[in-house]
Design a protein that fits this description.
The protein has seven helices and 17 strands. The protein is an alpha+beta fold. Strands 1-15-3-11-12 form a five-stranded antiparallel sheet, with no helix packed on it. Strands 7-8-4-10 form a four-stranded antiparallel sheet, with helices on one face. It holds the Pfam family FliD_C. One of its GO terms (cellular component) is extracellular region. InterPro entries: FliD, FliD_C, FliD_N.
Length: 438
Amino acid sequence: MQVERVPQTQLQSKVTTQQKIQSAYQGINTKLASLKTAADDMLKTTSWQIGKATSSSSTVTATTVAGTVPGSVTFDVTGVAKAQVSTAKYASATDPALAGGATKVGISIGGAAAVDVNVTTNTPQGVAEAINGAGLNVRASVLTTDQGTVLQLSSTKTGEANGFTITGLAGGAPTDITPAEDAVIEVGDPTAGGYTVTSSSNAITGVLTGTTINVTKLENNVTVTVDADNGAVADKMKAFVDAANSVMTEISTQTSYTAKAKQPLTGNSTVRQISQTMLGQIGTGQSGYGSFSQFGVELDRYGKLTFDREQFLKAYADDPTKVMNAVMAEDPTVQITTAPDGTKIPKSKMTAVMGLAERISIAANNSTTNITNAIKGSESLVTDLNKRIDAWDLRLENREAALRKQFSNLEVSLGKLNQQSTWLAGQISSLPTPSSNG
């Protein structure tokens, strides 16, 4: 049966090989997806508009997002956002918490219609459990204090819009020990051209585009400044270059060959073409701009990309628009208007110039399509091989049954021969021995 299984074993070996090929393809596809994400990130205008915020106060901070516009603003913090906290006092934890024969409390948030909350146990703890189970933006707890039992009600959100009222408690409305308040900053004199900005939270937006100002206490004469963060743009560019190198390294690993080891995609022309395409997109530079080495990106002698951060920062500081046009997607305002021989190209035949990131994004997308098709082809082959392996299971089962029957018959025949041999031996041994005198 070991001999009979050789064809099936060979098919199983082919399946294992194809699975290794699929895994190698998938590894490359993962790297290509990361590269396309990094390239597409460089195609966003907001990726080139990154700010770094500073504050003159230790109690005021500022954060920025992509698309931040540089600027500065000086203001007074005249209000800090607070969440409402109210309390109702009882002589003991077992005192009735509801007014009269009431069985529910009404809670209104931000002036909206009251929501009725049914209370099954008429004690402070029963009221707290009912409120917490209602799923509202109000939480309740029962505290044991020097002044007796206190039912404390707290809003889960800051700001006046999240203030609440509660009805139906014994003793009337609870006391607001911390009123709901908004955060407010005042820029200049509101009565003389200045303005105020109000927020229900202490994170205030809308003063500087793409910047959030976070306040924590009342304070005057605070200045928040946002400057362009070219270093963060350089970090994104480096991530883009690293993603491209990661693809080429993965391809090199999966297609390598040594005397000791042969990788799954050794000699695979589809995969090798990806590297050649990527290198070609980078090495040709851009018409009207020239080599990408001008902003620090170039190929080394090993076929890998290098990124000179200082060169990028210098080129970007000197002419941000020029560098952006060399990296970003098609820009109809950047066109080839002159042929290589110096002649003017008719406007009808002008074509938009594609930036480095656009080229790489397209190449990565096309390569992903090719690799995905290769994976599907390999999966189809594995499916076919597994069907053939399953067919061999039945064939081998029938073959084994036939062999067992054959050998069983041989054993029966051999047993009969052994019996005949034993009988003949007995007959021969029973024959008289010839006398010595004949």
